[in-house]
Amino acid sequence: MNCDSQKDEEDRFSEMIATADNDASQPDRAFLAGLKTESTRRFLETASSSRISKRNLIMAKIKKFAPSALAAGLIGAIGVAIVLLSGGEDAIAWADVQKHIEQAKYMKVKTAATLPDGTKVHGRQVMATGGLVRQDVSVVKTGEKTVEMVMIMNHDKGILLTLVKDQKLATQTKFTDMPKAMRDKIVKERDQLAQIKRMIRNAEKELGDKTIDGVKAKGFQVRNDQMVMDIWVDAKTALPIRMEVETTDPKTKIVLSDIEFVEKVDPDLFSVEPPKGYKIQPQRTVSMAPGGVEDLTSVLELWTQIRGGAFPDTIKSGLISTDIRTYVQKIENTGDRSKESQLLLAKVGKMDPQRLISVMMLMQSNKTFHYQGKGVKFGDKDTAILWYKPEDKDKYVVMFGDLHVEQMSKTDLPQDSNKKAN
């Protein structure tokens, strides 16, 4: 091939690649740019670092022709690359999956979950943006009767409606005293559909292929600090058909199947008003106001006791629930009937959930809240475990390992052990 004809082929190749996928994500654009390089080595390095399945398929074909592929005009390899980039049964990419989920307004799924205590929850769920969730579920506890329930949560209004179907009982739980900024944050964080959309923005790992209910599926995995999600999609359409979620705090397994994306649903599905024919129970009220020193002292004292005198590594509601279950299980397994253990069990049983909520709200709403109790033993009067500045106050509240409190200015705060560790 003479120089002119080779240049024509390369120009043609560059034009084809430039228009192959105008909606390409940034990683795809980097890959396409790599295809246009005149260096085989640089191209292979760029392609090898790719994550998206289409690029991986292209890479396998390119490697078959390398190192002579570029020098020969890339005709064979390019042809395959263009076909793969433009679609095909086995050519779906993570970007295709992301697009389907990002555009979803409502999501209907079949759910099956196993809670940390062994309780099985299964049924149907409808999710919508804006913090709306409806769950029609069966709750199965070992040795107990199955309970059919409906739970409708409107995070924006701060209301949870719970319906016990066989007893025709309706209970409204209202979450009050929440600052608007905190409510907006919770609506955003508790919006389950939005959570899924945030999860899929993470880097994915390919899981290969398998058949699910007679459908050829391709798998991807995404993860963050709280959960791992395996997403299985139709190999032809890239539409999700199954999501397998495992959370770490608390440890829970959830399977979402029969996934449907719909444009609209009946608004009454999300009504938090008790339906006709149900006996309305007294409304429950849960204050979401941030707590203070008394709440912190009560929660941390009990928490360290069930942990054998050690402060938790972090403060999370799910973590204290896990530690309580672990302690209770330990007492049951060992048959410990000592006065000390029985008194502690009684304290656990009487623990006011409102105090824990107040602590969590303080931690989440106060931007100055800092915790560094990891590795500290209860009673250590010289080591600061946390501090924060209450609103409208000039000084910080600093709590030490024996739970005594001191008031300090910002310049006098203890050393941040978390930064020291890093």
Structural notes for this entry:
It is built from 13 helices and 17 strands. The chain is an alpha+beta fold and 422 residues long. It folds into 3 domains: 3-89, no CATH class; 100-286, outer membrane lipoprotein receptor (LolB), chain A, CATH 2.50.20; 293-421, no CATH class. Strands 1, 2, 3, 4, 5, 6, 7, 8, 9, 10, 11, 12 and 13 form a 13-stranded mixed beta sheet that branches. Helix 9 packs across helix 12 (353-365). The radius of gyration is 28 Å and the shape is globular. The N and C termini lie far apart (58 Å). Mean pLDDT is 78; it is low at 20-28 and 35-90.
Using the 3D structure, state the CATH architecture of the largest domain.
Clam
Highest CATH level, the class of the largest domain? Mainly Beta
Domain count: the total is 3
- What proportion of the residues is helical, as a percent range? 25-40%
Please provide the count of β strands: 17
What is the string of helix and strand elements? Answer: HHHHHHEEEEEEHHEEEEEEEHHHHEEEEH
Q: In whole angstroms, how far apart are the ends? A: 58 Å
Q: Beta-strand level of the residues, as a percent range?
A: 25-35%
The biggest beta sheet is recorded as:
13 strands, mixed
Mean pLDDT: 78
Give the low-confidence spans: 20-28, 35-90
Based on secondary structure, the structural category is alpha+beta
CATH topology of the largest domain: outer membrane lipoprotein receptor (LolB), chain A
Number of DSSP helices?
A: 13
Briefly, what is this?
The protein is of the alpha+beta class and 422 residues long.
